[in-house]
Amino acid sequence: xxxxxxxxxxxxxxxxxxxxxxxxxxxxxxxxxxxxxxxxxxxxxxxxxxxxxxxxxxxxxxxxxxxxxxxxxxxxxxxxxxxxxxxxxxxxxxxxxxxxxxxxxxxxxxxxxxxxxxxxxxxxxxxxxxxxxxxxxxxxxxxxxxxxxxxxxxxxxxxxxxxxxxxxxxxxxxxxxxxxxxxxxxxxxxxxxxxxxxxxxxxxxxxxxxxxxxxxxxxxxxxxxxxxxxxxxxxxxxxxxxxxxxxxxxxxxxxxxxxxxxxxxxxxxxxxxxxxxxxxxxxxxxxxxxxxxxxxxxxxxxxxxxxxxxxxxxxxxxxxxxxxxxxxxxxxxxxxxxxxxxxxxxxxxxxxxxxxxxxxxxxxxxxxxxxxxxxxxxxxxxxxxxxxxxxxxxxxxxxxxxxxxxxxx
Length: 409
Hints:
Blueprint: E1 2-5, H1 9-24, E2 33-37, H2 42-57, E3 62-66, H3 67-71, H4 75-78, E4 83-85, H5 92-100, E5 106-107, E6 126-130, E7 132-133, H6 144-148, E8 152-153, H7 156-168, E9 173-177, H8 192-200, E10 207-210, H9 215-220, H10 222-229, E11 237-239, H11 247-253, H12 259-270, E12 275-282, H13 289-302, E13 306-311, H14 328-351, E14 357-365, E15 370-374, E16 380-384, E17 390-399, E18 404-408
Parallel strand pairs: 1-2, 2-3, 3-4, 4-5, 6-9, 9-10, 11-12, 12-13, 16-18
Antiparallel strand pairs: 7-8, 14-15, 14-17, 15-16, 17-18
Helix pairs in contact: 8-10, 13-14
């Protein structure tokens, strides 16, 4: 069985669950292709459709899963020979069996609690644990809410039990992930800081990486959140998407915070030495030149360590799809300026790490004999030699705008 996974850590986790379910059902050796889809960007969606057409022409048995069929159920009509599920892995086994029998199953339902589902991890050293599904947002450009719905937080006890399991199985990194980790618990009377406290008190030499959280949720619990991230076993890493440096564009996007509020959150994390990651969309239909320059100035002013820069794409079914898009040449120009700005900011910031020495966890090996090791601030340090799954002492000897280079001591 082959699984092609597109998109975020949640999708990676869903693929791991489907692989675990396949093993339980005796399907891991089946001549089956699972395409776990993402609907965030138009280019990614176009690439996936091209793959599906190729698989159709080859006559393969296929299960299509993930956000594309959940957001666009009509996709199933375009490929009548394939089985389709949405974002609920529990529907996978019946769909897979139907596909292997030359039939099809279409079950695009609402996903349930996943933290207790079986899984086979892609990496033995990283445990991805979903803490909730859906979100509380209403962003004008986002199709993911159409696919995954409103917030459904999973019980803390089941998340902690999964964490114990993967730590005991040798994982040194625990990724707590969802569409918006900052919203965790708002529907069940708890919170992300409380969950982090429970996970971080478990025995073992591990670190917890927290996935994306929106600024408005972070702001609502900022002192407790900073205390939670300041625990030894929590990576000082915060992914806080701002999307625009202009308050008018943020309002048009349906974001529920201001630029100043984002800066307050970012500065609070930087105050404990945390690595700050953010996302920026360039070319939103109501973004004029002044608004774009506001984003450039924000990037320079806040100097985040990681920036994911995306050109705006109209996504069917979203409010922003009805707006007149800016010319592609203009969004490309703005994207180029933003990338150049981040390269300058990132290069300057990372150069300050040269000479640093300390512990780092080698979580990923490359084919060229190097490993990526992460220190407590989740900075990626590329070193030669060493083994995955090991803590090591390293010295940073060089840097680029996106990573650090080092040596094992």
